Structure formats: structure tokens, C-alpha cells
Amino acid sequence: MAATADRLRPVVTFAGQGIRFDQDSAETPPLLSRMLSYPIGIIHHQLSRRLGAGKPQPPRRQQSFSRDFGHAAAETVLVTRLSFTLLRSLGVGYRWIVRLTALAVYAILLMPGFLQVMYDYFFSSQIRRNIIYGNQPRNCLDLYLPTNTDEKKPVVIFVSGGAWIIGNKAWGALLGMQLAERDVIVASIDYRNFPQGTISDMVTDVSQGISFVCKNIADYGGDPDRIFLMGQSAGAHISVCALLEQAIKEAGKGESVDWSVSQMKAYFGLSGGYNLSKLVEHFDSRGLYRSLFLSIMEGEESLAQFSPEIRIQDPSIRDAVSSLPPFVLFHGTGDYSIPSDASVTFVETLRKVGAQANLFLYEGKTHTDLFLQDPFRGGSYELFDQLVAILHAGDEEALAKDSMAPPKPRLVPEILIGLARMVSPF
């Protein structure tokens, strides 16, 4: 891994509490300075919602508990029905019984943290839940809003993971609430999962959600000139596919587009997989069986189409690749769900085709450490601090405020986190 990291300078490697920054090479400008100078061409749209009258909707107040309860009940019925369909595809074998049992134990051990996050998710006045962005099932998003509304805020559009099967916008609740405390607006997008939809449906949903945020986020106090796209695990894959598809449409010069890649100041990919052809057998060995995975991805012949690492090497879309925003990838070297090499090779490929890309490796961190266990520990953790530093780059006042922010509270005792890490099926 050290040899690989050297080939990808600049790389930041985190080992426990210590941090090592590799210096930028002379021909590669530092990440933050490059991002600050990166040209952003914002395309201004008429603020309209294609739902009902089509006029801009003012920020809505918190929905009533009864409405949320009704929505949750409808979602439960839908998820239950789809679960039976999914189980018929998976079959009920020994491997899945073991993994489902491990998942249940994992969730129970981390339940103190989940309960606190769920309470805030349903009762916080700073969260706008279930804002509809499209006409398909699950076409809705959650907004996490800062309490300080004095000036326009940076915006993160977040796409959650879930193996393309169990993704949910609520998975981004903890990150959304923590970033909102640092004066960042987070829009967590829901999308159809398999078997309700396949990969092209998921990409379409996410692209439509991005479009809605770009058009309407100013109404909620967001800065249209500081929008960042972020995906985690399967969400990292889906969001990159949406970004690349949009770039290809724009480069075609003939297709109308609802949003532009130039509106994305940067892309953040957390623990993602970007070359499906290399991951099919790995997923099969971990229980996401080949036949099921190929069904999600619409057949083996579609793997290259939905593999960003492969597509960006196509000379025919060179103009599209050149329009992509800077990429910043995060990955733990102890990730067994999606090996960190997936991010390493994607960064290498992005740089070969002339795109801006940086990689942050976290020594020994697993697939869920960066997203769940570390935040549940409270205090400060490297991924969050690095993310906030990039989001607030160039804003001295915000950076000073970040440096004085109180430590985040611990949500789960360390002994439970350690046990959960041992039984984690991820």
C-alpha cells in the first residue's frame, strides 16, 4: 500500500490518531489552492418545481408527526413487499442467514447511537424531511439546515450507500446533522433500490435529485456557487455515474440538460467502487451473488457502461472528462466490502486522462469505521475534519469557527463499538 500511495502523490495517510501529510510535487498544486482557483461556471435556472403549479416553493415547515408516521408506514409496506421479492432472488442459504444474523447483532450493539440519531432525525426543527423532487417512488430528499442563516452556506448533495439494495436517505442523518452544525447545508437524496429499480433507474433518480437541489437550494439559504456532490459506498458509484452521464450529455451539444457539472465545485467519494468488472467476483464471494449483481447492473454487457473507471478512458468522451470537477476520494485500507484498491486505481485513471483527483487513505479503517463507528465515538475524527476543511476552504471566518467548535459527544460506549466492529458483516 505504501508503494501505491507513493505513485499517487499527493496522498494523505491516517494511522490511528497520527496524521502524515505527503507533500505535493512541484508540478501538482496543493489541493485546496487548486480548488479555490477552479473555474466555476454557474448556469442560472428559473426556480421552478415540476410538480403542480411549477412555481418556486418556499422553505416548508416541519411536517406534522402524523404525516411522517403515515409516510413511514407506507415506506414500511413497500420495503416489506420488496424484501420478499429480493429474498426470492437471493435464496435463503447459510451464508445469508449468517450475514443477516451478524447485521442484527451489529445494529443492536450500536443501538444507543442509532436511537439518538433517530430521535434528532424525527424531531429536529433543522431537518426538512421528504421533500419531493420527482414523480417516481422514493423520489424525495431530506435537507439538514444550519441554525445560522446570516449568509449563504456551502451545500453537500449526499447519496447514501446500501449495496444498491438497502440504501436510504436516512443513512446520511448523522453526517447531515454534524455538517449542519458547521454551517453546511446537506441534501440527502433517496433513490429507487433493487428490485424496485435497476442501476439506470438509480442514476436517473440521483441526477433528478441533483437537478432539484441546484434549482431550489438558494430558497433554503444555500450558495449556488458552492455545491459539492458526495456519495458513500454504492452511493459513490451511483453519483459518479450520474455526474459522468451529465458531462457526456453536455459535451454532446444537442441534449437539453436540467443541471450542469460546472455547478459541482468538487466530488467526494467515500469507500466507493468504480470498476464493476473488477468487483463482480469479490462481491460474489461476500454474498452479493453474481447473478443478483448482474441483475442490478442490467446484465454483464452493461458493466463497462456503468463503470466510470472504464468509461473515462474512452477517447470519444474526452471533452466530457475535461469538464469534470476535482475528485477527492476517501477510503480505509481495512475495507473488506470494497477494497481500497478500487479508489487507488480510479484516482490513477482519473489523473491519466487529465482530471484532478486526490486520495485520502485511512490506515486500518473498515467500510463502516469512517461513516459510523468513528462518528459514534464523538470528539474529532479525521474524515470529518478533512471534509470540513475543504468545504470551508478560503473562508477564514468559517475556518476559525471550526477550530473553536466543541468536540462532538460520544454516542456509543467504546466497548460496544469494539464488539460491533468484530461482528460487522460489512
From TrEMBL:
It is found in: Endoplasmic reticulum membrane; Golgi apparatus membrane. Its EC number is 3.1.1.n2. SUPFAM superfamilies: alpha/beta-Hydrolases. The keyword Ribonucleoprotein does not apply. One of its GO terms (cellular component) is Golgi membrane. Keywords: Endoplasmic reticulum, Golgi apparatus, Hydrolase, Membrane, Transmembrane, Transmembrane helix. Gene3D superfamilies: alpha/beta hydrolase. Residues 141-350 form the BD-FAE-like domain. It is a multi-pass membrane protein. It catalyses: [protein]-C-terminal S-[(2E,6E)-farnesyl]-L-cysteine methyl ester + H2O = [protein]-C-terminal S-[(2E,6E)-farnesyl]-L-cysteine + methanol + H(+). GO terms for molecular function: hydrolase activity. It is an enzyme of class 3 (hydrolase). The keyword Lipid biosynthesis does not apply. The chain crosses the membrane at residues 96-119. Belongs to the AB hydrolase superfamily. Isoprenylcysteine methylesterase family. This is protein-S-isoprenylcysteine alpha-carbonyl methylesterase. It comes from Cucurbita maxima.
